[in-house]
Amino acid sequence: MNSKSSRELLCITGSEKNYALDLKWIAEIYADVHISPFPCLPPHYIGMYNYKGQIIPVISLEEADARILIIIRCNDCLFAMAVSKEPFIIDQKDVEEIDSLHPDTMSGLWAEQALYQMEGTLVSLLDIQSSVEKMQSMNEKEF
């Protein structure tokens, strides 16, 4: 078991592994939403969403046909993560941390903070702050 102090994580079921987010980044969760397509966005964006009168980008975690949005607030950045399955809460004490690739060697948009094993499946704790920095860097290169 993990010796760190216990905290709750939002878990998202993916196609090959599960993902987890620290609850401090989560603003809200919406189901069955309409994502508006928007031309000329970088490839990691799947559209835009009207969140309380503010237009925010929607980024897919894995699949583009997702209908559940997790609104994430990181510092001054606000965006939506699109997922296809309903997220659920797990307690960090119920998962076991295992060795993972160093975040610099991971491909893709999302940075990994830690890798856990839960009931025979992998759970990747996403590093939201590093992922936002990666997105901003990618956006600067695109435009």
UniProtKB/TrEMBL annotation:
Gene3D superfamilies: CheA-289, Domain 4, SH3 Domains
Entries under InterPro entries matching the protein: CheW-like_dom_sf, CheW-lke_dom
Pfam families in the record: CheW (PF01584)
Domain CheW-like: 9-130
GO biological process: chemotaxis; signal transduction
This protein's name: CheW-like domain-containing protein
